[in-house]
Amino acid sequence: MTGNSPERRRAQRVSANLKLEVKVPGADARTATLQTINISSSGVYFRSDHFVPPMTRLAMEIEVSVPADDGGEHGTALVPCDGLVVRVTPETEVPDCADYEVAVFFTGITPEGMANLERHIALLIDDPD
């Protein structure tokens, strides 16, 4: 790949610092509360203090801001979704590493959840601050 390779993403990605709850599978199954780096309608990118191997299936819940239907103050909505880890940086588990960056492709999201996610993304595009 070169620096001039064409963009492969189909969904617009926006920077977003959102609360993300991830159900981490495995013998020590737990729920981790993390922060996103960016998000699109097809996936999420977040930081984790634990290594999550590529191809791991995750159940997640993202808290997003959504515009009020009546044009008033913004509200919040929870977006439950499932996803598949497609990339991790660093690519392997590193002793004492406390900052892994994890890219997840959404594999399951309800129509209501997708509508709320798209409303949130539109809100960020219209008012990035």
Using only C-alpha atoms, the radius of gyration works out to 15 Å
Shape: elongated
Order of helices and strands: EEEEEEEH
Alpha-beta classification = mainly beta
Average the pLDDT over all residues and give the rounded result.
86
In CATH, the architecture is: Beta Barrel
Q: How far apart, in Å, are the first and last alpha carbons?
A: 33 Å
Q: How much strand?
A: over 45%
How many individual domains?
1
Q: Count of DSSP helices? A: 1
Regions with little confidence, pLDDT below 50 for 5+ residues = none
Biggest sheet architecture: 6 strands, antiparallel, barrel
Q: Which strand order does the major sheet show?
A: 2-3-4-7-6-5
Give the fraction of residues assigned to helices. Answer: 10-25%
Per CATH, the class reads Mainly Beta
CATH homologous superfamily label: predicted glycosyltransferase like domains
Quote the CATH topology.
Thrombin, subunit H
Count all strands and give the number. 7
Short note summarizing the structure:
This protein is mainly beta. Helix content is 12%, strand content 46%.
Short descriptors:
single chain, 129 residues, mainly beta, Thrombin, subunit H, six-stranded antiparallel barrel, 1 helix, 7 strands, 12% helix, 46% strand
Please describe what this structure looks like.
By secondary structure, the chain is mainly beta. It has one domain (14-126): Beta Barrel (Thrombin, subunit H), CATH 2.40.10. The N and C termini lie far apart (33 Å). The protein is elongated, with a radius of gyration of 15 Å. It has one helix and seven strands, in the order E-E-E-E-E-E-E-H. Strand 5 (57-66) and strand 6 (75-89) form a beta hairpin. The mean pLDDT is 86. Helices cover 12% and strands 46% of the residues.
